[in-house]
Amino acid sequence: MALNVVVAGLPKAVQHAQDPDEGLWLTDEQRARVLGAAPDVRLEHLPVSQLNAGRGPERAPHAIMVETSGSKPSLDVEQGILTRSGLDVLLGPELRLLQSMSAGAEHLVGVVPDGVAFANASGVSAPAIAETVIAGLLADAKMLRERWRHQAARAWVELPARELSDTVLVVLGTGNIGASTARIARVLGIRTIGVNRTGQPVDGFDETTTTEHLHDALARADHFVIAAPLTPATRGLVDATALAAMKPGGWVANVARGAIHDADALAAALHDGHLRGALIDCHVTEPLPADDPLWAAPGATVLPHDSHASQLLGDRQVDLFVDNLSRLSQGRPLRNLVDLSRGY
């Protein structure tokens, strides 16, 4: 039996796309791999303008890999995005698998039809995001911001840089991104504490605890990384009280979703010196408005939600999709299935 496959939409931060505005990015080699994932795969790599205008594929798809705004029309302005109306064109009765090119799932909760397997891209971006977090942590400890400023002024100034060994890193969210970050941190001699819903142990962490005990963990933290999915339970979880629970002079990174932390409280903690620094990759409003206080907050590094940028991103998206197509054709369990009741 033929397996009809559609790929549509531009994965965020994918590099060297042939036509990014149309979301066309698969290379010839990647196309060949998709076609070889199972017997008789029929692939359509479609421009988003066609689907967004209501013109569907030649064949009703059994499996799709999409970058879509889903239930968030505010994302429709993003380059190469498949809109909700474009996605609806693909959600026919033959569909068996919807593979998202995003790790987040909140924009597709309530959108994926009953009976359709929904897989996300969790893990695809984890290595790049973990590297970004560790780069920010090292830049802060070694005072690179100050060193670059001194170099620009041709000033020879010795600085009291710090080692990271024997410091404590708390990570909210122990999935692929959190665990990848923790594993690198441990190589640097950092003690790692993972925070998740159940407190279950996770490889890469020296210890784990529950979200109920987040503030207790933060009281021990020199560094804090937010890497959890956005759910009703995590929305607003990192508020002023949580930030105040950290040791004075702490450092914070958010590489998850902007709505998890209180942006005003974070900026205030940077301005009053309670926090030494922060690396914030995700924001409630994107692009971040020019008058947002985070831009000028002492020690803040503002990223445009691209901590996952990598030359390997496209290949990893295809790796996951090819594996799931093979599993689908053989009736084996799929990878990265999302529990829609939890939102991740």
From TrEMBL:
* Top-level division of the source organism's lineage: Bacteria
Which residue ranges does the record assign to the D-isomer specific 2-hydroxyacid dehydrogenase NAD-binding domain?
A: 136-305
What SUPFAM superfamilies is this protein classified in? NAD(P)-binding Rossmann-fold domains
- Keyword 4Fe-4S annotated: no
Q: Tell me which stretches of the chain form a coiled coil.
A: none
Cross-referenced InterPro entries, in alphabetical order?
Answer: D-isomer_DH_NAD-bd, NAD(P)-bd_dom_sf
- Name a GO molecular-function annotation: NAD binding
CDD domains, from UniProt?
Answer: 2-Hacid_dh_1
Gene3D superfamilies of this UniProt entry?
Answer: NAD(P)-binding Rossmann-like Domain
- What UniProt keywords are attached to this protein's entry? NAD, Oxidoreductase
An example Pfam family from this entry, by short name, is 2-Hacid_dh_C
PANTHER family on file: 2-HACID_DH_C DOMAIN-CONTAINING PROTEIN, D-ISOMER SPECIFIC 2-HYDROXYACID DEHYDROGENASE NAD-BINDING DOMAIN-CONTAINING PROTEIN
Can you name this protein? D-2-hydroxyacid dehydrogenase
- Origin organism of this chain? Desertihabitans brevis
